[in-house]
Amino acid sequence: MGFSISLFFLLLPLSFQSSSSLSSLNKGSSLSVEKQAQHFILSPNQMFCAGFFQVGENAFSFGIWFNDPHSHNPINVVWMANRDQPVNGKLSKLSLLNSGNIVLVDAGQITTWSSKTESHAPVKLHLQDDGNLVLDEPQGTILWQSFDFPTDTLLPDQPLTRFTQLVSSRSFTNHSSGFYKLLFDDNNVLSLIYDGPDVSSTYWPPPWLLSWQAGRFNYNSSRVAVFNSLGSFLSSDNYAFSTYDHGTVMPRRLTLDSDGNVRMYSRNEALKKWYVSWQFIFDTCSIHGICGANTTCSFDPERGRRCSCLPGYRVKNRSDWSYGCEPLFDITCNGNESTFLEIQGVELYGYDHNFIQNSTYMNCLNLCLQDCNCKGFQYRYDEGQGFSCYTKLQLRNGRHSPGFSGTISLRLPKGNNFSKEESVRAEDHVCLVQLQKGYVTKPENCYVRFFLWFATAVGVLELICLSMVWGFLTRTRQKSSADQQGYHVAAVGVRKYSYSELKKATKGFSEEIGRGGGGVVYKEESYNGRLVTWVKEKRSGTYSSWLEQIIDPAIETNYNKFKMDLLVRVALACVEESKDLRPTMSQVVEMLQSHESNPKS
Predict the structure, then answer these.
(1) What CATH superfamily classification does 290-430 receive?
(2) Which residues form the EGF-like domain (predicted)?
C-alpha cells in the first residue's frame, strides 16, 4: 500500500470528466482539452460542434466547426475564440463560471479569452442549429453569441455589420489572423483590404473606380450584409449575387480565405464534399499582397496563379510568397552607376512617388535617377491624356497584363546580367508550419510541491527495497532443496507460514471475511497496514519524537514541523480503508492550503 500512496499523489492533479458530447454547458461546468475528441457541445441537429481542436504541436483552440465524423479531411472551422493565442494541450479548459462569465484558461492559469459577461441567473451555453454559440438566461435574454464576433466565416443569416469584420487565416494550415479583411469602410462600402506587416491598401472594389462606377451605393446608414441557405447574398451598398446552385437549401458558408478572396462554399451531402459556388474576385492576381513586394503575378485558369520575382530579385520564402522577393544587388544613389531594364506587359499598381502627364520616356527616366528611393518607373499611354510617367518607391502589386498599354522599367546597377524572372507557381513549395505553444506556469504551492517530492522519494525507495528483496529471495530459492513441497519463495509466489505467524497476523483469527470450499478466510494485517498503524502511533507523541523517526535523515532540520505534520495527516487520510473516510481531491487541496490561512510556524 505504501507504493500506492506515492502513486496516488503523483496522479493527484488528474481529474476525469464525462467523455460524451453535451447539449449545453451550465454554471460551474467546463470542457477539458484532454477530452477534446469526445468532450464537446453538439447542436440539436448534430450539424455543428463546439469544443477544442488542435492547431499545432501541443497547441489547441476552442471553436465551432461542421460536424462530419466520417470525413478524413481537416475540419471546416467557422468560428474561433482564441485564434491568435492557442492554449496548451494539458490542463487547459473552457469554463462557465458561477458569475456568468465564460473563460478559456491555459495550463498556466492564464485567461486567454473571455466572454466578459455577468449574470446571477442560471445561464447556459448551448449551440444552436444554425451554428450560433449562445449564452442566454432562462427567459431568453442573450448575453453573448458567437454570431456577433465572426472570425473568417459567415453562416446563413449571420449578418456582417458596421461593428464586425472577417479576418482571413494566415494560411490553410495556420488559423491565426492573416492579412486580409472584409468590412464596411468609412464610405459605407463593403470592401476587401490588404493589411500587411508593412503596407495596407483596398483592392476590392477596384480602387481606381468611384463607388458609383463599381455599382455601389454609399449613401446608407445600415451597413449590413447577409446571405441565406438558398444562396442569395445582399449588402446594403447594393452589392448582391446569387450562387450557381441558387434555389436549393443546403449547408453553406461564406469564407474569407487566406489568399484574400471571399468564396461561398456549398456542401453536396450525397458526396459529402464542399465546392465553390461563388467568389468575389475572379482575377486573383488583382488581390494585393498575394505575391509580396518585387514580384509579378500571372494567372492561368488551368495551372492556377504563378508568382515570379522581378529580374534582379530572389524569393525570400518559397513556402510563403507574401514575403515577396529581395534584391540581389546593392542600391546606389549614383545615377551614373544605374541602368534600366524595360519589361513589356507588366503593370505595377500603387506606391507612385511622382505622376507626370504628357511625359517623354527620357524625362521619366531622368526623374527616377534624381531620386535615390526610386526603384523604377511605369510608362503608359492613357487615352485622352497621352503618355504618363509613374515613378515607384516600391514595386508592389505587379501583374502580367497582356493588354496593358505600357511598360515597367526597373532600376538596376550597371554591368548586371539580370534578365530572367525567378518564378514558381504560388501553390508550390507549401510547408506545413505547426504552432508550438509555450507558457509560463503559475508558481506552485510550496506544500504541494514538497509533498509530491516526498511521495516520489518514497516510491523510489520502495522500488529499491523491492529489488533488494527480489534478489534475496531469488538467491534463497536457488539454495532450496527439491523437497520443499513445490513452494516457491519468490516475490510473487507462495510461502509457508507458522501457526504463530498466522495467529499474529490475523489478530488471533478475530476478523472473518468469508467462507469457501477450502474453509474460513481471515483478514491479515499486511506490512503496509502495519506501516500505517506505526505512523499513526508515532504521530500521537510530540513533534520531536515522531518526526525524527519518520522523516528522511537527508532532510536534516530543513523542514517546517507543522507543514510536515499537515502532509502526513493528509497522506494518512487518503489511505483510510473505508473509501467514505477518504477525502475528495478538492478536500485534499483545501487541507494542503490550510496552512496559508492559519500558519503556525
Answers:
(1) Hepatocyte Growth Factor (3.50.4.10)
(2) 281-319
Q: Which three cell numbers stand for residue 209?
A: 473606380
Measure the CA–CA gap between 471 and 483, rounded to whole angstroms: 22
Residue pair 378/392 in contact (Cβ under 8 Å)? The answer is yes
Which of the following CATH numbers is that of domain 1-149: 2.40.128.50, 2.40.160.20, 2.90.10.10, 3.40.50.720? Answer: 2.90.10.10
Q: What is the spatial distance between Cα 239 and Cα 227, in angstroms, rounded to a whole number?
A: 12
Single-letter amino acid code for the residue at 546: W
CA dihedral 219, 221, 227, 232 (to 10 degrees): -30
Joined together, the cell numbers standing for residue 573 give 487520510
CATH class entry, domain 156-282: mainly beta
Q: What percent of the chain is modeled with pLDDT above 70? A: 72
Q: Which residue has the cell 446571405?
A: 227
Choose between 514 and 471: higher pLDDT. 471
**How far, in Å, CA of 100 to CA of 144, rounded?**
10
Q: How do strand 48-57 and strand 41-42 relate by DSSP bridges?
A: antiparallel
Q: Over 60: is that where the pLDDT of 326 sits?
A: yes
Cis, bond preceding 205 (omega within 30 deg of 0): yes
Cβ-Cβ contacts under 8 Å for 74 (sequence gap 6 or more): none
- Burial letters for 62-100: b for 16+ Cβ neighbours within 10 Å, e otherwise? bbbbbbeeeeeeeebbbbbbbbeebbbbebbbbbbbeeb
Q: What secondary structure letter does DSSP report for 129?
A: T
**Mean pLDDT, the chain, whole residue set:** 81
| 45 CB-near residues (< 8 Å, 6+ apart) | 129
Q: Which residues, 6+ apart, have CB-to-CB distance to 16 below 8 Å?
A: none
Give how far the C-alpha of residue 8 lies from the chain's centroid of Cα atoms, to the nearest Å: 32
What residue has cell string 506505526? Answer: 534
Report residue 24's pLDDT band, with 50, 70 and 90 as the boundaries. very high
Bridge pairing between strands 435-436 and 48-57: parallel
Q: Which three cell numbers, joined as nine digits, stand for 292?
A: 509580396
For the chain, state the CA radius of gyration.
Answer: 36
Cell of 570: 493528509
586, containing H or E segment: helix 585-597
The pLDDT score that the predictor gives to residue 301 is 79
Q: Which amino acid is at 241?
A: F
DSSP 22: B
**Angle, CA of 110, 75 and 269, to the nearest 5°:** 150
Q: Return the SS3 of 335.
A: helix
Return the domain boundaries, the chain. 1-149, 156-282, 290-430, 541-601
Which residues does residue 166 pair with via DSSP β-bridges, in sequence order?
Answer: 182
Same fold for the domain at 1-149 and the one at 156-282? yes
What is the CB neighbour count within 10 angstroms for residue 490? Answer: 13
- Nearest Cα residue to 176 out of 438, 433, 440, 441: 433
